[in-house]
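Researcher: Quick sanity check before group meeting.
Model: Go ahead. Protein one:
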Amino acid sequence: MPDEKSVGELVSKYKKELEQKLGQRESVEARPITTKEYQEFKKEFMPTRLNLFEKACNFSEKLIKLKPDAKTEPILQEAIGICHLNVTPAGTTSFAYLFPVLFALLGVFGTIAVPFITGGQISTFFITFFVVGGLVLIFPLTKLPEFLANSWRMKASNQMVLCIFYVVTYMRHTSNLERAINFASDHLTPPLSLDMKKIIWDVETEKFESVKESLDHYLQTWKKWNMEFIESFHLVEASLFEGNEKNRLTTLDKALTVILEETYEKMLHFAQNLKSPITMIHMLGIILPILGLVILPLVVSFMENVEWYHLAMLYNIILPVSVYYLIKKTLSTRPTGYGETDITEENPELKKYHNVIIKMGGSEIKINPLIISIIVGALFLSIAFFPIVLHYAHSDPLWDIALVEDSKRGTILKTISSSTPTEELAMIKFDFLGYRTARKDPNKIKGPYGIGAAIASLGIPVGIGIAVGLYYKLRSKNIIDIRERAKQLEDEFASALFQLGNRLGDGIPAEIAFGKVAAVMEGTSSGTFFQAVEVNIRRLGMGIEQAIFDPKAGAILQFPSKTIDSAMKILIDSSKKGPLIASQALVNVSVYIKEIHKVDERLKDLMADISSDINSQINFLTPTISGIVIGITSMITTIIGKLGIQLTKIQQTAGAGAGTGGAGAGLVDLFGDGIPTYYFQIIVGLYVVQIIYILTIMSNGIENGADTVSEEYLIGKNLTRSVGLYVVISLIVILTFNLIAANILQAA
């Protein structure tokens, strides 16, 4: 027997001879081998944001190359590999430091340049904000590749159960790993389909010698996160070496059982560990901000130099970003699940259903939801900005229309101007704009404080929240309806497949079996599907494959489901080996579908309580409490404003030298101008829109994983419903509390 050394020398000798005969072999191997198909596939399915991130990192690396430390570099490289990014760890590190520096410099420059041009004062608040914000940004940006890898893993893990299902289902009737992985990649959606194709392409480009070697290398990337996925694939590989057919099938069944059982166990631990992070998010995102909103009107009324944009920075930038970061961090710990996919990625022809479709006769009119949303948003935003436009359009900065209490004529509608005496200003019950001179600086005009402006400001949350909600709802509604019909078919499909398998096992030809099963299941979605197949066979003379998959008349067009699609392809492939094998294949597929459905229902059961709590915050608590706070704020601002005017009237009446006048002057100086309800409501309204959007992402992520279609639909539904509730409650409370305040002040 020759030893390994002599064999190696012999192989090396013949390699050199082959290289000499074949020409410049070394130069060919020196170049990295890529495939055009892989690059095109990657370009088509890689998210746009990742392509932009690639460009930003590569550009930053050219400007200034910063290498990460030796400990961080392999972590970044692993994350980059998971996301299939064409960047280097040095590029991501350069971007993580360069972008915050540019953000800080541009922010500080703008803060200094704008007052210099307009003649205003430089705000130290904004300078501090941009500098601190730039420094804070460095930390999350250095972790951004890991964050993207977690998002990729979360979306991929949603498809892992299906991946094992497709591989096992195919290998039951054809024991070929390469073809099974190809079959899975055809029926999965990105990103896992990209990973599966990459496994095959790595073999084709000679990076690995076999599919098993390429697969084992890929599975190492999931070692830290999804051991059940690795175990299942190892069982699939083990089935290839089983000599006994029964043992081979048992091993394949075990592969699917392992991932289903481990998925449930991991999700159970995830549900148990969610209580603490959700409590923190609830406190940080809802309770503490709303408690702050109750106190803030009083605080700012007695504090100088606090402007509305200071609160906007806190409530509309810092808090939402913090809550979003916490939510994404929490969702990144979600284990492998069984979630839905975007059917438009599976079937690009369905993308037309992202539009609003109006059928007129035999034609269809497609309207982009974006157009409807822009029209709705523009309409309500124009209402919201009307008080500002009206103020600047009038030559008199204090011009207004108000309801004034007249001693002779009662409540009358009257025009207010700069020349209106203080005695008449004190008799105002309600004003539309409510602009007034600042107490500390008579040359400065502040506002609008009026109830009319406060009501008009509700157009901001409506114009943004309802418009965004309508866009997402209209964009996803048709797709959700199609998917729900397909899902209904999937729920029934297991028993339908079982019946079809039994018919085939009885020796009935597939062409006739479809008709018999359709008759038994008449009135159900499965019956409709099988009937469509039977009609295509009987009336149009199609074969089974054409009857199901014909691009124009195929039955699958009415039910775009990858599960159904894969089951029918299994039927066609296995039927080539005989009716008994086809029968057994369908029976096994039906069993697998039932098992997956059972685990899916158990997972939803686990998440039911958590999802219910989050949905109650989204649909009721947040909009209701925020609406009440706006009403209270409006009342407090009105009372403080009217008290200031009345104290000024007392001061003027008593005379500057009298004792009462001195006391009045002291009380007038005690009050600040406060923040107009107009701006305060805009800040709170936008925060309600933001927090509902973010909490919906969390609710969907916990329950459905990375399901973008469901996420868009829920965002649309929750935004339109919750923002509508917030606006109605705010309007009612503002009117009620201001009426109470006006009566109290009038009586005083």
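Researcher: Fine. The other one?
Model: Protein two, sequence then structure:
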Amino acid sequence: MSTILTNLVDVSYSYITRPILQGLNWEIQAGQKIGLVGANGSGKSTLLKLILARLAPETGTVFRAKDLTIGYLPQDPELDLGESVLEAGLSGSPEIVRLRRELAEREAQMGDPVVYSDAARLTRVMDAHEQLLQAYEAAGSLTYEGRVMATLRELGLTDDTFEQPLSVLSGGQVKLVGLARLLVWGPDVLLLDEPDNHLDLAGKETVERLVNHYAGTVVIVSHDRYLLDQVVDRIAELERGQIKVWLGTYSEFAVNKQLAMLRQEQLYRAQQKRITQIEAAIKRFELWASIVVDERHARQARARYKMLERMDRIERPGEQRRMRLELGGWRGSNKVLEIRRLRKSFADPPTSSQRTVLAGVDLLIWHGERVGLVGPNGAGKSVLFRCILAAAGIGTEQPDGGEIRLGPSVSVGYYAQQHETLHPEWTVVQEIRDLKPMYESDAYGFLGRFLFDYEAAQKKVGQLSGGERSRLQLAKLMLSDANFLLLDEPTNNLDIPSSEVLEAALEEFNGAVLVISHDRYFLDRIVDRVAGLEDGAITEVEGGYSDYLLERQ
């Protein structure tokens, strides 16, 4: 039997007055690779912090094995951006950090005139320094720096970044440094809260490889279903404040959950039918007992009441509240987009030279096609989008050469990765009514389809979470009545249920789609062609991401 590392028993926790976890029970054993899934706001990050002892449960207990070490990577890494990349990487192990600090203190003492002029005192400091050195070596310090550097390289960071401050790195790169420091430390349990956010495809594949080879237990929160399929052996589903564990990958979980819900619905209907029959029998016996004053009929009624009381009631499977998105589209030009020999360069300040991003790009999209645009971060995908938007008259990014032609009956709808099409000072309802005039009551009703209640619809856009802004952009996209969609990372801030709603809407969409995405599960389900942009050129592969990966390998 595997060792139990942590066990949550009857744990409850609330945020202000809103219950998040309610009598939750969950056991984590050594060696497990667990995918923690649930809707945005269901309490996944709260649950990780309870395991970590950063939060205390209101009721229940959290058991942790003796001397258990836990490493935690939050959504936004808690690193000092003034530190160098290497310093941050070396700060993973609390024991080595403590020993390094104490060694530095002893070395400073040995250089203090007050100490080195006193032979006895200097001897004591030197002896303490020697003991610390031995402990430092025993903790694996001699190879620690080398392992940190090797792991940083494996995660795609180059040697010339090691001495640079974290502040010069992208958000994805800072997250990789945070992951590297944990991997080298090697705690018993790794708690990873969306470690793949802001990573390109190569970064996600590296994370998968490292997590797969990690010897300890891993609990990973992610909306990347492809990643969950690659690294986990069970799914812990957090729903309505409770955890249910399903063995297998995410795809197996999705199928098994659907089958379980269908079975529960069948059992529920059968039980409700039986309950109706018993209640009808009770009414008949009570009526007969009142007419003929027969104790036998009264006993039969009481027996059936007891039968209902003893019955284990089957709950009706609850349908998770999801947004309702419809992207109608319409039949326009047969040739939607034609790009020929497109070129674009930017000045590179450090070298005072021009950096070519697009070097003669060609791309042709027809009505009804779904094309996925992939490539490393910085390859120029968003630049290409901005050039297309300029050609559509809704942007200003002009190419250096080549041409972009949109069909005469093409209307472009744009989903921006950084939500720059939204107005931070406007309210949610203002965003909708500005795009399409409607009565205020109708606007609130429409926003309800996207999970905005009355209070949320009155918030300013700048106060919304990333997921809320994503749903607001999709609401505006639905009102745009476009037949050519340019989507830049549309699933980045969406939870899995919302991503599935978007996928279903895109499958029914009567138009063309060009989508930038690092969501491989999404690409496999939606696109019928992948355009890989790298080194300024596009390479096309028929099929989804899996076909593209096979061709690339």
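Researcher: One line on it for the slide.
Model: The two ends are 40 Å apart (CA to CA).
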